[in-house]
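Hi there,

I know you've been waiting on this one. I reran it after we fixed the sequence typo, so this is the corrected version. Both the input and the resulting structure follow.
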Amino acid sequence: MKLSALALAAVLASASAGNPQLSISVRDGSFDGLDGLDPVVSWESATRSGDLDLSYGIKAAARPTTDIASLPRSIWGKAQTDVSGWGVSARAELDGQDFTRANLELDAGNAASDLSVHMVANAGNDFTVRSVEATKGLDVNGARVTVTPRFDLEKDQRDVVVNYRNDNTHVKLTASADNQQVTISQQLDKDNRVAPTINSNGDLSVEWERRLSDDSSLTANLKPNDSLNVEWRDAAWTANVNMPIDGANIHGANVSIKRDVNF
């Protein structure tokens, strides 16, 4: 008899107050019957132990199979607490098919200093820091400014991100030794937002977001001579269309559709 993660979801739902969530996507390629569907069930829960807030969860494939061990895609856990005015958290995530190493995210934040630090690392046979970044916030004449230096140790790259927010305007500057990029996002009215982006190489893209209702929106991102990406969100439904562009020609569209189902 073939079993699926839907059975696992039913057990988890009865064992905990946390409700599983089913996400169904359409896979790329040609398939017979329902093989083109990629259903994934996720579940999470939380508890408290002393001064520690603990949360944990699992994501698994929901496809019929006799190999139960192949279903888990990822398992994660997170712990957070306060230490001398700093909010500290550690999150570990394991690949469902490889338990020899974990992806770690370590965060610390101090509201009084308006300062936060984020580190990504790998732990297994050894401990390796992949990236580190720190964010300092400032309030300047009614505007919000954040400065984030980032260090990617894996790729040996360094840059800084500066964000400026004031009412309906958001400016984001990303600068490294090799490239600089600026995005200016402007909320035109309650339903429309436009955000052009240009970099030091002369590349240009424009994003337009249209709010259709309280839980529905349409977002289009145009990169001339590259691609047009359109995302439509309608409550639990999400549809993405990616169309490669060469001049005025469109060479084909990739379409993906996903729906989240709460049990």
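Quick highlight: The longest strand covers residues 127-140.

Best,
R. S.
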